[in-house]
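Technical note accompanying the year-one report. For the benefit of new consortium partners, we illustrate the data format agreed upon in the data management plan: each record pairs a sequence with a structure-token string. No post-processing was applied to the example shown here.
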Amino acid sequence: MLALLLALALALALALAAGIVARHARGTGHGTAPTVSLIAVGDIADCGSPGDEATALLVGSLPGTIAPLGDLAYERGSDADFERCYAPSWGRFKPRTRPAPGNHEYYTPGATGYFRYFGDAARPGRGYYSYDLGAWHLISLNSNCRGAGGCDAGSPQERWLRADLARNRGKRCTVAYAHHPRFSSGLHGNDRTLADLWGTLHRGGVDVILAGHDHDYERFAPQTPAGAPDPQRGMRQFVVGTGGRSLTPVLLARRNSEVRDSTSYGVLQLRLAPRGYSWRFVPVADGTFTDAGSASCH
């Protein structure tokens, strides 16, 4: 009888411990969340280019949430550009799309074509927002600083970003994305107007940053907002401007640039796990360039 009572007591203790661990995992977002997929690319649809049809065919075979990184409907992001150029190829992905606006969207005053096309998903009026995916927190920023009301320290967007990161401090892994890259070896080069936003992201522990704007693919090593190598706490930036509009050459490689290509249209597929991520550049059918790797979150 004593042995039976001891066995029951041990079983109860193990069950209680398992319950505590499970509640802790749910509370921190670790361990119980599924691995999810994020598809990212910018600089997409032009009625005169077949590239967006090729990338749309590719994306149709890939599961997951889609993060279009701006410059989605050339030339001006007008209602007509979205209906004639973007909708026929990429429009079918609208239900799983979480976009960011590009500078071409603002060629139409107020980016009204962009905001009308995506509706509430684009957060009309400001263009920045956040959401959760699996164990990850995702932040879509508006790097068109004038349209967003500023990108500098103390601007409405920067204050919102600080508060958002503080509210989600318990998330182990975070990715942010916008149209303009802070660093780039492409034609547009580095963008110093984003330094304050990068500083806020870095202090908030963000792991990955995604951008477009330059029509190429580039992967950077983890770095600080000033461009110093930082393998422990740095943010890894990808430039993925290979959505179909056109491809432009990569110039002199910037510091910390690890991989560059401007030969293949394609998309970046991120697999977001509870404690880390993997990446894979997936080219269109006639593309030859690939890139892949993995890393842990901070």
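Partners are asked to follow this layout when depositing records. Residues 170 and 240 are 29 Å apart (CA to CA).
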